[in-house]
Design brief:
Order of helices and strands: HHHHH
Shape: flat
Length: about 150
Amino acid sequence: MENFTIEKMEIKRFNALLVRTIASALLLGVLIWETFCLDTSSKGFIGGIWYIFVFAVLLFVVAAIRAADVLERIKKDKKLMGALDSEIYSEYNSKALTAGFYAAIQMGLLVYCFGDFFNLSVRMGALIIVTVTVLISEIRRLLLYNPYKDGK
């Protein structure tokens, strides 16, 4: 397998993970907006935000399927798997998940300490913790997987 094919697949994987990160941020942002900022007593969830929520869900589903397809293509090809699914990438995934875990612990502590001050419900506190955890772990994964960091 040529190095060009490996680099091309590495860039495809990075782009798929980037789109998945953006879609998950949009989806979680819409959930936070609906939960925290909108007056849901008058319109309910079916109001004007329904279209934005459906768009965010569909974008997230398409991005997740695309990322899974790229990762599955890497696993099916033995040479690509040897080059792009090696121990270094397992270490990258471990570092990204560890960063998300520590972010969850820190956000849990902040929500516990300042939840009464900001009048946060348990539902909103949990949503904030999940949002920060997902975004920190995905951003850390993108920073580690970045194929452009060598100036390519």
